[in-house]
């Protein structure tokens, strides 16, 4: 069932890019960066594949991907900045968060916010959600935008370049997409383990 879902999702992504061109890349990457786990590991390699056929310019495809990331990240940032702190104060105890966590997040983003956002943009899964805590901590907007674009451009270009080199194999060999999905699953498993460790420590402390 999961394989069927992923296949259908990949087909839909391919159709959006084929129809919408660079604008389609921007829209899909904006969705991916707005805390909605749409796989950029399918979006950008397919854009790279189209670049190998002459449909796109590789650098412009990566730039479209990065612009989309900034658009989606800005939405998530605004949500975090406007309502995130209030939500944590009101409902945070139900997910083991409190005001002290907000203060720690503020210190973290004040000290390492830029590099943290840049590195997060190069990591599967994590890149999808980093904008929300950055907004909650109210990281300076200009710094957030610059580091988001820089990290997202490198990520988008690397994936598009892989699709460019794979050429027609990307369109005809589902095993290549499956490898990307398994990599995402491994990262997700690490995050779940990390979340479990966080919950266990907080419950033990209480």
Regarding quaternary structure, how should these chains be classified? single chain
Report the portion of residues in β strands.
under 5%
Distance between the first and last residues' Cα: 40 Å
- The pLDDT mean sits at 78
Overall domain count = 1
Element-by-element helix/strand order: HHHHHHHHHH
Your description of this structure?
The chain has 206 residues and is an all-alpha fold. The chain has one domain (2-205). The protein contains ten helices and no strands. It has helices at residues 2-20, 22-33, 40-52, 58-91, 99-120, 126-129, 131-136, 141-166, 168-172, 174-205. α1 crosses α3, α2 (22-33) packs antiparallel against α3 and α2 (22-33) packs parallel to α4. The termini are far apart. The relative contact order is 0.15. The model has no long low-confidence stretch (mean pLDDT 78).
Task: Label this structure with key terms.
206 residues; mainly alpha
Task: Provide a concise account of the structure shown.
The chain is mainly alpha-helical and 206 residues long.
Ordered list of secondary-structure elements with their pairings:
Elements: H1 2-20, H2 22-33, H3 40-52, H4 58-91, H5 99-120, H6 126-129, H7 131-136, H8 141-166, H9 168-172, H10 174-205
Helix pairs in contact: 1-2, 1-3, 2-3, 2-4, 3-4, 3-8, 4-8, 5-8
């Amino acid at each position: 069932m999961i394989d069927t879902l992923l296949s259908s999702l990949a087909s839909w992504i391919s159709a959006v890019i084929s129809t919408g061109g660079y604008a389609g890349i921007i829209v899909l990457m904006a969705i991916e960066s707005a805390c909605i786990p749409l796989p950029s590991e399918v979006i950008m390699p397919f854009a790279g594949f189209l670049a190998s056929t002459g449909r796109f310019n590789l650098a412009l495809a990566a730039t479209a991907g990065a612009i989309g990331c900034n658009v989606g990240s800005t939405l998530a940032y605004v949500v975090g900045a406007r309502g995130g702190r209030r939500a944590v104060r009101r409902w945070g105890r139900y997910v083991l968060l409190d005001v002290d966590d907000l203060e720690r997040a503020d210190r973290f983003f004040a000290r390492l916010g830029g590099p943290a956002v840049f590195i997060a943009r190069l990591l599967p899964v994590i890149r999808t959600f980093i904008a929300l805590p950055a907004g909650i901590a109210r990281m300076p907007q200009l710094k957030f935008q610059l580091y988001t674009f820089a990290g997202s451009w490198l990520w988008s270009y690397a994936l598009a370049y892989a699709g460019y080199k794979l050429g027609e194999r990307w369109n005809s060999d589902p095993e290549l997409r499956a490898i990307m999905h398994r990599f995402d699953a491994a990262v997700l498993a690490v995050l779940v383990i990390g979340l479990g460790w966080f919950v266990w420590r907080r419950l033990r402390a209480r």
